[in-house]
UniProtKB/TrEMBL annotation:
<dbReference type="InterPro" id="IPR000014">
    <property type="entry name" value="PAS"/>
</dbReference>
<feature type="transmembrane region" description="Helical">
    <location>
        <begin position="37"/>
        <end position="53"/>
    </location>
</feature>
<dbReference type="InterPro" id="IPR021766">
    <property type="entry name" value="PhoR_N"/>
</dbReference>
<keyword id="KW-0067">ATP-binding</keyword>
<dbReference type="InterPro" id="IPR035965">
    <property type="entry name" value="PAS-like_dom_sf"/>
</dbReference>
<dbReference type="InterPro" id="IPR003661">
    <property type="entry name" value="HisK_dim/P_dom"/>
</dbReference>
<keyword id="KW-0813">Transport</keyword>
<protein>
    <recommendedName>
        <fullName>Phosphate regulon sensor protein PhoR</fullName>
        <ecNumber>2.7.13.3</ecNumber>
    </recommendedName>
</protein>
<feature type="domain" description="Histidine kinase">
    <location>
        <begin position="216"/>
        <end position="432"/>
    </location>
</feature>
<dbReference type="InterPro" id="IPR005467">
    <property type="entry name" value="His_kinase_dom"/>
</dbReference>
<dbReference type="Pfam" id="PF13188">
    <property type="entry name" value="PAS_8"/>
</dbReference>
<dbReference type="InterPro" id="IPR003594">
    <property type="entry name" value="HATPase_dom"/>
</dbReference>
<keyword id="KW-0808">Transferase</keyword>
<keyword id="KW-0902">Two-component regulatory system</keyword>
<dbReference type="GO" id="GO:0004673">
    <property type="term" value="F:protein histidine kinase activity"/>
</dbReference>
<dbReference type="Pfam" id="PF02518">
    <property type="entry name" value="HATPase_c"/>
</dbReference>
<dbReference type="Pfam" id="PF00512">
    <property type="entry name" value="HisKA"/>
</dbReference>
Length: 455
């Protein structure tokens, strides 16, 4: 109320001035009413003039952009200007804060791995993030205010939006390759809808793989089990001669072996998937591994092949002995199993210029047609199912080899041509290879260092 006092004082000043002017006019003219009129007009005019000047200064400022501060004035107009300016600055700050929060909120949604899309009651796109735009093949700017059903025409999606029952998500193939989307819609505000999309291609694929795997395992176990129960039935119901009994027992034994191999391979795979990567500090002599593998392969071949399985490499590999043994043995055993009598199987080692190395298993067997090669490491994939089963294969061998190599930072590569044999190469990175002599030196140095530190 400080302005009121100053205003009263100013009005009093103006009235005084008016009085003086009125008195002067009256004295000069001798007419009372003229003096009074002049006095009142001068006093009121003075107040109006001062108000008009100060009011127009404030009005000019308000009409402008308000970049500079409000006109500094005293009294009523000064306080009015100050209050208006403060209210405007407060409002500007609140708007800026709101804008910042909205931008942060939108960039958080933008960073979401899910697609987010907002629809107005007419199903027009109000906003969408990049992920949703990608999922629906939209342009996040150009397609704003467009009806979503004009742009995404998948009948299942249109029907889902129109039905308005959003309790269950919609699973939709997005029409670009094998992509599969899960779409959830939530209603909010007045007729607004929030559409959330999630790419579930990987999940669908791994669920399908798991289903296939369970179906394959069941099938692989059921086959020998059916055979076994048939034999048991036969032994139970038919009087067999001793020779027949012997034959049946041999066949039953084969089926049991088959199941045992299958379970062992399944366990190996489960172990490979569930255990941490082998460290680079446990060294395994390759020549020792090859000697053990060669002995088994010779027994399996029974002299039917020419075998050259023991190159002297003088190399040690960093990794887990049982896994490396299993990977190399799988390749050598396959080569012997699939190569007909009289064929050759060879194992070769090569150290490359960059320090990496390759162990190659070469055979002169039937070879593999090109279209099968990329699928060989899939679980239970067989080129020739009956040959594989006849020779005790499980269809899991190469998938174990691939896993072992991945875990050791290496790679399995296959070259083969029908009728010309096959080459299975195991590539090891330089960091996992050392010469056995280096290790002896290393051990000696370590021993000397230890001996010195003892003294
Ligand atoms: P399996 O237990 O059936 O041998 P693998 O995973 O070891 O399973 O091999 C997958 C398939 O690759 C085999 O069924 C076979 O058809 C083919 N294969 C593997 N090694 C050879 C080879 N040396 N020569 C020809 N075919 C092979």
């Amino acid at each position: 109320m400080s302005w009121l006092l100053s205003r009263l004082l100013k009005a009093l000043g103006a009235a005084l001035f008016g009085f003086v002017v009125g008195a002067t006019v009256r004295a000069a003219t001798g007419i009372d009413s003229l003096g009074l009129a002049f006095g009142v007009l001068t006093g009121v005019g003075l107040v109006l003039l001062v108000d008009a000047v100060r009011g127009s200064r404030l009005l000019n400022w308000l009409r402008g952009t308000q970049q500079e501060s409000a006109p500094r004035d005293t009294g009523l107009w000064g306080e009015l200007g100050y209050r208006v300016e403060r209210a405007m600055r407060d409002r500007d700050r609140a708007v800026a804060r709101g804008k910042l929060e909205l931008a942060q909120f939108l960039s958080a949604i933008e960073a979401s791995p899910n697609g987010v899309l907002m629809l107005d009651p007419q199903e027009q796109i109000v906003w969408c993030n990049r992920v949703a735009a990608d999922h629906f093949s939209l342009d996040p700017r150009r397609d704003l205010r467009q009806r979503i059903t004009n742009l995404v025409r998948a009948p299942a999606f249109v029907a889902y939006l129109q039905a308005g029952h959003f309790a269950e998500p919609l699973v939709l193939g997005n029409g670009r390759g094998p992509g599969t989307l899960s779409i959830v819609v939530r209603e909010y505000g007045e007729g607004m809808r929030l559409v959330l999309t999630l790419d579930i291609t990987e999940r669908v694929r791994s669920e399908a793989m798991r289903r296939d795997f369970v179906a394959n395992v069941s099938h692989e176990i059921r086959t020998p089990l059916t055979v076994l129960s048939g034999f048991i039935e036969t032994m139970h119901s038919l009087p067999l001669t001793a020779a027949e009994r012997e034959r049946v027992i041999v066949l039953m034994n084969q089926q049991t072996q088959r199941m045992q191999t299958l379970v062992a391979d399944l366990l190996t795979l489960a172990q490979l998937e569930g255990s941490p990567r082998p460290g680079p500090d446990r060294w395994v002599g390759l020549d020792g591994l090859l000697l053990r593998i060669a002995a088994d392969a010779e027994a399996l071949s029974g002299g039917r092949h020419r075998l050259a399985l023991k190159p002297v490499t003088g190399v040690e590999l960093a990794g887990i002995e049982s896994e490396l043994l299993s990977a190399i043995a799988n390749l050598v055993t396959n080569a012997v199993r699939y190569t007909p009598e009289g064929g050759e199987v060879e194992v070769a080692w090569r150290l490359l210029d960059d320090g990496s190395g390759e162990l190659t298993v070469i055979d002169t067997g039937p070879g593999i047609a090109r279209e099968h090669i990329p699928r060989l490491t899939e679980r239970f994939y067989r080129v020739d199912g009956s040959r594989s089963r006849e020779t005790g294969g499980t269809g899991l061998g190469l998938s174990i080899v691939k896993h072992v190599m991945q875990r050791h930072g290496g790679e399995l590569m296959v070259q083969s041509e029908v009728g010309k044999g096959s080459r299975f190469r195991l590539a090891f990175p330089a960091a996992r290879i050392r010469q056995a002599s280096d290790s002896a030196l290393g051990d000696e140095a370590a021993f000397n260092a230890a001996a010195l530190s003892d003294h």
